[in-house]
UniProtKB/TrEMBL annotation:
This is Amino acid transporter transmembrane domain-containing protein. It is a multi-pass membrane protein. The keyword Coiled coil does not apply. Residues 64-459 form the Amino acid transporter transmembrane domain. It is found in: Membrane. It comes from Coniochaeta pulveracea. PANTHER family: AMINO ACID TRANSPORTER, AMINO ACID TRANSPORTER (EUROFUNG). The chain crosses the membrane at residues 79-108, 144-168, 175-195, 201-225, 287-308, 328-347, 368-389, 395-421, 433-459. One of its GO terms (molecular function) is L-amino acid transmembrane transporter activity.
Length: 480
């Protein structure tokens, strides 16, 4: 039995507490070496984790995510029916520049994601992006990153609730008020988001990822087989008006870039996923699979749908395949949208929960304080996300603004700073070191430019947009 006292780490992470430790431990007993292996109950013990403190079988096991489930969690933080916004991106930029930009942004964010795993191994006490802000920029950096993370994922949760309402409207042919469907999404999301650990949510994430991928490829195949998209003129000859090279204005181009960045914006959640992995050294394996699958999906779906539909991609995009296939696609994708809702509620809730109870035995023990804090966190995030989604008429435009402002901030600049923080003072200043300094600086500068420009484009979009009323009952699934 490990007789070390419970962690006394305060909410403030200090650099001298960041010591490299054995990353391969299993919180309750040894790590299974293969699927289905059973660990003898007699081998279970108390294990001390740099983030969660003492983990025992008397409380939730916060270090029980295997690399296979980490793939599902990583993919689900990024991929949703929003992948069907890629044809619109290509319509703005053209197929060739659009595909190149998807690859470039995908490459940069993959490096950012990789740095999350490297930084976690070097600094085991890091739980979230706020701890990175604390290490590099002190208290100000911590608070700024905390607000950015919680605000970003709360808006994502609201967006997911609206997506569920769109799917329910499409499948049911607007059987009831849209505001009621948003409330249903919030209630279901809260119920499943209250599952305490990502290890237990992992299998649900696989269901969500599978349903989304099947749904988007159903739409993709359908638009390739039909005579013309549902939104195109139905009389007379028709030919797709796809463009290899577009001629967008600056605002249009930046908005398209922001859409791609938002599609890869799961990066800040990867800290939390790595923190709950049984073996963080397997993080990179899961990351490579995740980024490869979603990048191929984005390119294939974007190119194929845009090639066959041209500028007549319906909004929402599943309508491009016609009314029947739209219902089918939303029906198949509904579980994935619900998983997006629960996961985007769970992540900021867990973030708040850990920050409140870190350093206390209540973090990993089934005490009244533990449960009251946890349920209060999930209920609070759910309520705020629901009110924002239903009560703000310009919600869609605000999501674009939050994505451009905070999504870029959380995916680019911190990771460049992380590499410099760990490597700037090295005595071996080789050519490779110089190249990495240049690369890290490029990521910081390009991220800052895209953040400012994307925010400008989003504000312009808000000024030009029209909106429906708060708590609207109107059908939001489109008429196609």
């Amino acid at each position: 039995m490990d007789k070390r006292p419970p962690t006394t780490m305060s909410a403030e992470i200090k650099p001298n507490e960041m010591k490299l430790v054995d990353d391969t431990f299993n919180p309750i007993g040894p790590v299974p070496t293969g699927p289905g292996e059973v660990i003898d109950a007699d081998e279970k013990r108390v294990v001390h984790d740099s983030v969660f403190g003492d983990i025992t079988e008397d409380g939730p096991n916060y270090r029980n995510v295997g690399w296979v489930r980490s793939v599902a969690l990583m993919m689900k933080t990024q991929i949703g029916l929003g992948v069907l916004s890629m044809p619109a991106v290509l319509d703005t930029l053209g197929i060739v520049p659009g595909v190149i930009l998807i690859c470039v942004i995908g490459g940069i964010t993959t490096w950012s994601d990789y740095m999350v795993g490297v930084f976690k191994l070097r600094h085991p006490a890091v739980y979230g992006v706020d701890d990175v802000g604390q290490l590099i920029f002190g208290r100000t950096g911590r608070e700024m990153m905390s607000v950015a993370f919680c605000l970003f994922f709360t808006f994502v949760a609201g967006s997911a609730m609206l997506s569920v309402s769109i799917a329910l409207n499409a499948v049911s042919m607007h059987a009831t008020c849209s505001a009621a469907f948003v409330a249903i999404a919030a209630i279901v999301g809260f119920a499943f988001a209250s599952i305490q650990t990502l290890g237990k949510i992992g299998w649900i994430a696989w269901v969500g990822v599978s349903s989304i991928i099947i749904a988007v490829f159903t739409v993709t195949i359908a638009v390739g087989l039909q005579d013309r998209p549902a939104a195109a003129p139905q009389a007379g000859p028709w030919q797709s008006d796809y463009k290899l090279f577009g001629k967008p204005s600056f605002t249009q181009a930046i908005s398209a870039c922001s859409s791609i960045i938002f599609s890869y914006a799961g990066t800040p959640a990867f800290f939390n996923i790595a923190a709950e992995m049984r073996n963080p050294r397997q993080y990179t394996r899961g990351l490579i699979i995740c980024q490869s699958v979603i990048s191929v999906t984005y390119i294939v779906v974007g190119v194929v749908v845009y090639y066959y539909c041209g500028s007549y991609v319906a909004s929402p995009a599943p309508g491009s395949a016609g009314p029947l296939l739209k219902k089918v696609a939303y029906g198949i994708g509904l579980p994935g949208l619900l998983v997006s809702t629960l996961l985007s509620i769970h992540l900021p809730s867990k973030f708040i929960f850990v920050r409140m109870l870190r350093g206390s035995r209540h973090l990993t023990a089934n005490t009244a304080t533990h449960w009251i804090s946890w349920i209060a966190s999930t209920a609070g995030v759910t309520l705020v996300a629901y009110v924002i989604a239903s009560g703000i008429p310009v919600f869609g435009s605000l999501v674009s603004l939050i994505g451009a402002l905070l999504g870029t901030l959380l995916c680019f600049q911190p990771m460049g700073c992380m590499w410099l923080y760990d490597n700037w003072k090295t005595e071996k200043r080789t050519v490779g070191w110089s190249l990495m300094v240049t690369w890290s600086a490029f990521v910081i500068v390009s991220g800052t430019f895209l953040m400012v420009a994307g925010t400008y484009g989003s504000i312009k979009g808000i000024m030009a947009s029209s909106s429906s009323g708060a708590w609207s009952c109107a059908d939001n699934s489109g008429s196609a």
